[in-house]
Specification:
The protein is built from 4 helices and 17 strands. The protein has about 230 residues and is mainly β. It folds into 2 domains: about 5-45, no CATH class; about 55-228, no CATH class.
Length: about 230
């Protein structure tokens, strides 16, 4: 999710109908500039070289969102009817990109879903498989350290910056009943909002996540540090 404001200009976006590196390209209506969905970078037009501000966001199910935010607003996509336009593409693990390409990033199968993070010290990604086997994945090499969480529901992931005071080198976090806990329960947080649940636990700041196929994410960020 990106801020739609560049300096004093508020932009309105639409799909351009084009792709760049096999990822959606957006177009703003004000300047007709083209923008990468993955990187937020303006790749053509009057605002070329500008990058949209990445906003804190998470991936969740509607049921989970409604439970946490019963009065939250939801953007509902209109029903188009008929089969999904890209159903065959999504269901074919060997079809990479619209025109076909080889997977040059062999750490994961090309169409593995990853949750990518662009942090101050570079790009990181956590695979969906990693979250299935360990619902709390700590990226202790990141600066500052980050924890990526899954509630166990499909397509549900959250990420938070951890306090600098925590020793994350051998940190074992557990996630149970919506509560993220350090050993001995010294620190506890709400796993959905990051709110601290005791005096020793400061509120956690949300880290923005971007979900993508592995081959698409890695083509933008080839130096990604991957948690498999």
């Amino acid at each position: 999710m990106y801020a739609a404001r560049v300096d004093t200009l508020t932009l309105t976006f639409q799909a351009s109908g084009s792709l760049w590196r096999d990822a959606l390209v957006m177009q703003d209506l004000q300047t007709e500039s083209l923008w990468s969905q993955i990187s937020g970078e303006c790749i053509s037009g009057a605002l070329k070289g500008t990058t949209l501000q990445l906003l804190p966001s998470f991936h969740t199910t509607f049921a989970e969102f409604r439970k946490q935010y019963p009065n939250g607003l939801v953007l509902e996509k209109p029903e188009r009817g008929g089969p999904r336009a890209y159903a065959r593409y999504f269901n074919d693990p060997d079809k990479l990109g619209i025109f076909g390409r080889a997977n040059t990033f062999e750490q994961l199968p090309a169409k593995s879903l990853v949750y990518g993070l662009r942090l101050d010290d570079g790009a990181y990604a956590v695979s969906e498989q990693a979250l299935e086997s360990n619902t709390a994945v700590v990226l202790n090499n990141a600066s500052p350290p980050v924890v990526v969480l899954s509630s166990g529901d499909a397509s549900s992931a959250h990420a938070f910056h951890l306090p600098a005071t925590l020793d994350t080198d051998h940190l074992d976090l557990t996630l149970e009943d919506g509560v993220l806990t350090t050993p001995n329960s010294d620190h506890q947080w709400d796993a959905f909002t990051g709110a601290g649940l005791n005096d020793a636990s400061p509120d956690l700041k949300t880290a923005p996540l971007i979900s993508a196929y592995w081959f698409a994410w890695a083509s933008f960020f080839p130096d990604t540090r991957l948690q498999e």
